[in-house]
Design a protein that fits this description.
With 550 residues, the protein is of the alpha/beta class. It has helices at 17-33, 58-74, 159-167, 185-200, 266-285, 298-311, 328-341, 351-365, 372-393, 403-408, 429-441, 454-458, 478-490, 495-500, 505-517, 519-522, and strands at residues 2-9, 36-40, 82-90, 99-107, 110-116, 132-133, 140-143, 146-152, 172-177, 204-208, 210-213, 216-219, 223-225, 231-234, 241-250, 253-257, 290-293, 316-320, 344-347, 396-399, 421-422. Helices cover 37% and strands 20% of the residues. Strand 9 (172-177), helix 4 and strand 10 (204-208) form a beta-alpha-beta unit.
Amino acid sequence: MTFAIAVAQLNLVVGDMQGNARKMVEAAAQAAGQGARLLLTPELGVCGYAAEDLYQRPSFLDECDAALASVVQASTQWPGLTLVVGHPVRASGQGRPLCYNAASVVRDGAVLATYYKRALPNYREFDEERYFATGDQPCVFEVDGVRVGLLICEDAWWPEAARSTQQAGAQLLAVINASPFHIDKPQQREAVMAERVRETGLPMVYAHLVGGQDELVFDGHSFALQADGSVAARAPGFEENLLLVQVDQAQAAIKLSSTITPQGDTNSQLWHALVLAVRDYLGKTGFPGAVLGLSGGIDSALVLAIAVDALGADKVRTVMMPSPYTADISWIDAREMAERLGVHYEEISIAPMFEGFKAALAADFAGRAEDTTEENLQARIRGTLLMALSNKFGTIVLTTGNKSEMATGYCTLYGDMAGGFAVLRDVLKTRVFELARWRNANDPYGTGRDPIPERIITRPPSAELRPDQKDQDSLPPYEVLDAIIVRYMEQDEGIEPIVQAGYARADVERVVRLIRINEYKRRQAAVGPRLSERGFGRDWRYPITNRFRG
């Protein structure tokens, strides 16, 4: 016996229930037209993932119910096609308002079964126990003589739910998902799912969400695994796709077959994730374009290249805002990069404004030497100019600070931190260099090779806020700094284990102190895409008032 399963890898919008329903209906029509008998759609596809405290609003759940009903009604158009649709369901009898993270099995205008997610992630970026009640029963349904066991995302990351679904008679596992991206997550995801299929002896079809949602990026890469754990199918990453998987049953054995798209290397995945994050944040929130300060340095250069790949050159505005300390080569490199990418470019000198601020403060500052105060004034003047352009033209300011700077506070509150979306918020400085070189060697969106002048990549980084300033005057070498940040911030290692790993105690204690005392800045920073296993934001929740020093 042979039939096809269609995996709808969709880019959905939180809160756009009718729009999401239309996308699922369109996918069902396409799947039916290609002869599919089962369509899988992403986790909580009706409302989008993650809707956070919207789950607690009765009117929100009412609209979810109405959207699900429209999909159920539309299913009458495709007799014999079974749809799996993710949506929230009110939970009765709970001590506080909760719902279930659910998936309904729909066929011929009826809901045949509804499954409630059993494993609720409540770590790092997840807080599903805040919103959802826990299911406790497996769900197995039949498609053309094959018994399909349904799981939702986290259910498949642990053995129990898959095992009980097998014991309930499943011959094939169907998993619908909204699994956020981080570096190497696609490979990790497939490896863990391979463990499940080897434990159960059941093949698996895994349907995944794609798109950007605030701090989260969903990479797609939907796939299917044979019962031995080998890859039978894989959809492209970072784009919508309808993946058709053939199911062949001969006696007791089930074999799956389809196309297998390569995943790409780490920097390729990161680039596509950053582009998708920018495109969807602006597209889904309604901003018509972006503006950013182009300094001639590598961070703003990388953000510009990402923005052009995401939005197109016609929707990106760049502003060079030189100060008395801006090097001539910064002007030259900024102009050259803007010309290479074909974006709007202008120059606004901040020197007159800087002198005006210093004159206004001269009496108060009399007798005191210039220090970081004057450096921060320059950054804040630039932030004010960018926000003025944002207000006047309706565009969003893309900030250009990276994770190394955010960790150590090497950034100015209300200055270079001012803006609406922090593109590099979770990209360490060492990775910034890697991505710049990767983008110069690759042109994935057809906007031009070598967009970043080589001198921007090779010259020593500098904020150019005082004469002859270099980043390394204030920070350890980036290779050392970033390694300490990863160990302390991402992997929760303490000071002593990091020192024992070979790092100088003075460097470790200094970096840890900077991470601790700059939490107040990060709380006021723009949101940005989470790309590592732990980013500053929803999966980093540290108190500002805090005397712990370890």
